[in-house]
Amino acid sequence: MINQGTRKLKKILPVILLVSFGADAGFDEKVAASFAAKYHVCAKRLDNNSMPLRALKLRAKSKEITRNKIGDGYLVHFDKEKKRAWKLSLNKCKKLADKL
């Protein structure tokens, strides 16, 4: 009885592993996550430097992108890009806000 249960588990386990690791972001999700992370971080930086209108534009655009591309792969890549986006200078953040 116990042997049959472990046999079934051995057959199902590789399938579960493939599905769980298959949540990789595609190219469009990676690009969207990159832009959304830059907009998100720049919105925080500009809001701290007394530029609320520019920050509001960036925050709205970041939320719009996130709503359209939400998914497991997107969220993982969004977190990675957010760490990189903190290296942007304040002038680049201003330029991003002005382009929108």
From TrEMBL:
Q: What is the protein name given in its UniProt record?
A: Uncharacterized protein
**In its keyword annotation, does this UniProt entry include Signal?**
yes
- Which UniProt keywords are given for this protein, alphabetically ordered? Signal
Name the source organism: Shewanella canadensis
Superkingdom classification of source: Bacteria
Leader sequence range is 1-25
